[in-house]
Amino acid sequence: MHELSIALSIVDGVLEEAGRHGTGQVEVVYVRVGRLSGVDKDALLFSYRVACGDTPLVNSRLEIEDVEVVIYCSQCQGERTLRSFPLLICDDCGSAANRVVHGDELEISRLEIAA
User: Fold this and answer.
1) pTM of the full predicted structure?
2) pLDDT tens across 90-99, in order?
3) Phi, psi angles (nearest 5°) of residue 20
4) In CATH, what is the architecture of 2-113?
5) What's the CA gap between 96 and 107, in Å, rounded?
6) Domain range annotation of the chain
7) 3-state class of 43 per DSSP?
8) Is 26 exposed, middle or buried (0-12, 13-18, 19+ CB in 10 A)?
9) Which long-range contacts (CB under 8 A, 24 or more apart) does 74-77 make?
10) In whole angstroms, what is the distance from residue 19 CA to residue 7 CA?
11) Which of 4, 44, 69, 103 is the most exposed place for a label (fewest CB within 10 A)?
12) Helix (H, G, I), strand (E, B), or coil: what is residue 48?
């Protein structure tokens, strides 16, 4: 279960950031998780609770924002949100995607800290 190692990394990153700013108690950690990241949300939520066990984050909450897959279609000359995932094909014109713009994210987006 690679979600535990991800959760441990999230905890380390949050503790480092909170320490750097000398902030109060972290209440909520927000992460953005793309559909292409391969992360199981339920496993990540469970793993986060385990990873926080003996840390100052023990009472914090993890909030996950889903990030849809967005491709750039050179045929349409624009970004398109995929409805036909997992196929990386433009839903408008049927062309193969040139690149993924969004959807592979796995990042801490913000922290909610008690005053």
Assistant:
1) 0.86
2) 888 888 888 9
3) -65, -30
4) 2-Layer Sandwich (3.30)
5) 27
6) 2-113
7) helix
8) buried
9) 74/98
10) 18
11) 4
12) helix
Q: For the chain, give the number of residues.
A: 115
The dihedral built from the CA positions of residue 80, 84, 41 and 12, taken in this order, carries a sign that is negative
Integer Cα distance of 109 and 61 in angstroms: 14
Residues 6+ apart with CB under 8 A from 86: none
Helix (H, G, I), strand (E, B) or coil at 70: strand
AA identity, residue 30: Y
**What would the pLDDT profile of 26-64 be if each residue is shown by its tens digit?**
999 999 999 999 999 999 999 999 999 999 999 999 999
**E strand or H helix that includes residue 21:** helix 2-21
